[in-house]
Amino acid sequence: MKKILFILNLLFCSLCINARCHTNQNAMQLALQAYMYKVMNTRQICAYFDGYWSEWLSLGDDVIFSGSYSSFVIYQQNEGPWDYFFKVSLDDFKSPDKKSKKKHMKSGEWYEYSGKVEFYISDDYSDIYEIFKKSKRAAFITKKAMGERPVKRIVRNATIRVKPYKRKPQVYNIFFDKVGVGINFGKWQFL
Question: How many Å apart are CA 135 and CA 62, to the nearest integer?
Answer without folding.
Answer: 20
